[in-house]
Design goal:
Elements lengths: L8 H8 L17 H17 L2 E5 L5 E5 L10 E6 L14 E3 L33 E3 L8 H19 L8 E6 L13 H4 L3 E7 L4 E6 L1 E10 L15 H10 L17 E8 L4 E10 L4 H19 L4 E10 L3 H4 L3 H13 L5 E5 L4 H7 L6 E3 L11 E3 H21 L3
Parallel strand pairs: 3-6, 3-7, 7-14, 8-13
Antiparallel strand pairs: 1-2, 2-6, 4-5, 5-15, 8-14, 9-11, 9-12, 10-11
């Protein structure tokens, strides 16, 4: 594919993924890891070098900048947002991206994981990119396309707009956030300072994805209390909180209400961490559903199972700690239909057929929408995210840049004034 707007998006992406920006939900700082600062400061320098205005990096790791409007153009201020952190679930240290030129449709061997190549059998979307260039990991880390693809696409689009004043557009605000992967990406995002009428996250999957609906999400932790004593003299005295928690976990739903057995619009509960000791064991779970009210039902189900587990071990008890994470952004975005319509028109202008679906997860846009910044999600080209088999097509990186530029241009012609 010859890009309509040639850009540096691939070069930027290859550079950005080599910075280890894994977030850490055990940290209390913001950003949660120093590597995120490294990339944010790199991006700050690059934004200034491009000539962007109002470039600010605040004390919490939120980086904003402005592509100024072209002379005479009037349009609402539009924002584009991506997150710099990557998932803590897979190593992001020493990422060595590989570019497979002119992909021939066969297996792609990952040198650090040669026994299990990236194959069309397990990743059938690969076959849509035969003849194009594919970027993969080396096999021992993730790639980081989630969401450094979005970061690179936004930066490359900004470069295109700055270099081509003949493309009319209103003011474009750019925002890069930390810690999205641990649910904190928009917590300290200053919507008023950002100053956009609406925005789009670039944090989606294959070409054509367009999402204005996400899970509603809570985190819930069950703290099981037992009683500890010397195990040699424990008869009638010890209550092992690990065993109580194990009984609780063993009772969790298997067929339904579980990530392994749900799809589409089905919600789930998901245990993802255990901090275990005989006297106190904590089990942390995720609650997810597209219907916000169902989160309460899922929490009641879990509480009933915890009560049953403690009844099996007399003398044990439990506490529940529940925190809100984000809500289904459709509740906000549906009140502003022109935002999705503008995205659809930009997709078509870019030769992309939009495929509208619900995200079985969340993005910064979920929280931003409820903070007063309606913010659906655009494709970024991510594939097999959070794994050593992550990959992205160079054509999709270029096509996402084209969509951003077309959104800016169409807004100037259709939403002027």
């Amino acid at each position: 594919m010859t890009p309509r707007f040639p850009s540096t998006v691939v070069e930027r992406f290859l550079r950005y993924v080599q910075v280890d920006t894994r977030s850490d939900d055990g940290s209390t700082t913001c950003p949660s890891t120093p590597g995120q600062w490294d990339l944010l400061q790199m991006l700050e320098r690059e934004m200034l070098a491009l000539g962007l205005q109002d470039v600010t990096l605040d004390d919490n790791g939120y980086l904003f900048g402005t592509v100024p409007a072209t002379p005479g153009a009037t349009a609402p201020v539009i924002g584009f947002v991506a997150h710099v952190d990557t998932s803590p679930e897979v190593s992001g240290q020493g990422v060595r991206p590989l570019v497979h030129r002119a992909y021939d449709g066969g297996d792609l061997v990952l040198p650090m994981w040669p026994a299990a190549p990236l194959s069309p059998a397990s990743s059938p979307r690969l076959l849509k990119y035969v003849g194009g260039d594919i970027i993969t990991t080396s096999g021992d880390t993730l790639l980081g396309a989630d969401d450094k693809a979005g970061v690179a696409e936004i930066m490359a689009a900004a470069e295109v707009l700055m270099a081509h004043p003949e493309i009319p557009h209103g003011p474009i605000r750019i925002g890069f956030t930390p810690d999205e992967e641990i649910g904190r990406g928009a917590h300290l995002f200053d919507v008023e300072r950002f100053g956009a009428a609406f925005a789009y996250t670039l944090d989606g999957g294959p070409r054509g994805e367009l999402e204005c609906e996400s899970f509603s999400a809570d985190a819930i932790t069950f703290v099981f209390h037992g009683a500890i004593t010397h195990p040699g003299y424990a008869r009638g005295r010890m209550i092992n909180a690990i065993k109580v928690a194990a009984a609780f976990i063993d009772s969790l739903p298997v067929h339904g209400l579980s990530p392994e057995t749900t799809s589409g619009r089905e919600g789930f509960v998901h245990p993802y961490r255990i901090d275990a000791a005989v006297d106190v064991t904590r089990v942390s779970l995720l609650l997810r559903d597209f219907d916000t009210e169902q989160l309460d039902a899922h929490a009641r189900t879990l509480t009933n199972l915890a009560e049953s587990a403690t009844q099996r071990w007399p003398g044990s008890r439990f506490e529940v700690v529940r925190t809100q994470q984000y809500r289904n952004m459709r509740e906000v975005v549906d009140q502003h239909p022109h935002i999705m319509e503008l995205a659809r028109r930009a997709y078509h202008a870019s030769g992309v057929e939009p495929h509208e679906s619900a995200i079985r997860g969340g993005t910064d846009g979920s929280q931003l929408s409820f903070k007063g910044l309606p913010c659906p999600n655009l494709f970024a080209g991510q594939q097999n995210i959070h794994s050593r088999f992550e990959w992205i097509a160079c054509d999709d990186l270029h096509k996402a840049v084209e969509v951003i530029v077309n959104i800016a241009a169409l807004a100037a012609s259709e939403l002027a004034g």
